[in-house]
Amino acid sequence: MIRNLQNSDRVNMTSFWGDTIYTSASEICNKLGVKITCYDGDKTHFEFELETEDGTPFTLYDWKEGDWVTEDTRLHYHIGASSKGASYLALAALEKHGV
């Protein structure tokens, strides 16, 4: 199970380690049962602050791929994590849930 983080301080200092998923914000919400954390941020359209079942915190964000983006637009979402191993755990958990 992947869920929204209750304490966003746990994703401070996360970084992009090269792992991405190709999906839409609405698919992320529908398949995982989570909520969007940030709409139209400084450098992203949609951000999610999440954690895996074992408590590994991570973020998903789209890194502003264009101006005409809606929740249904399929984009490459970056995974932000504390290490390459944590990024891989997040990617595996997302794939397990069909995202």
Walk me through the structure.
With 99 residues, the chain is of the alpha+beta class. The chain has one domain. It contains 2 helices and 6 strands, in the order E-E-H-E-E-E-E-H. Strands 1, 2, 3, 4, 5 and 6 form a 6-stranded antiparallel β-sheet that branches. Strand 3 and strand 4 form a beta hairpin. The radius of gyration is 12 Å and the shape is globular. The chain starts with a strand and ends with a helix.
Question: Main β-sheet: number of strands, strand sense, barrel status?
Answer: 6 strands, antiparallel
Please count the beta strands (DSSP E, at least 2 residues each): 6
Query: In terms of per-residue confidence, which ranges show pLDDT below 50 for 5 or more consecutive residues?
Result: none
Helix and strand element order: EEHEEEEH
Radius of gyration: 12 Å
Helicity level? 10-25%
Distance between the termini: 12 Å
> In DSSP terms, counting alpha (H) and pi (I) runs of 4 or more, how many helices?
2
Q: How much of the residues is beta strand, in percent?
A: 25-35%
Number of domains: 1
Secondary structure class reads alpha+beta
Q: Report the principal-axis shape.
A: globular
Overall pLDDT metric: 90
What labels would you give this structure?
99 residues; globular; 2 helices; 21% helix; single chain; six-stranded antiparallel sheet; alpha+beta
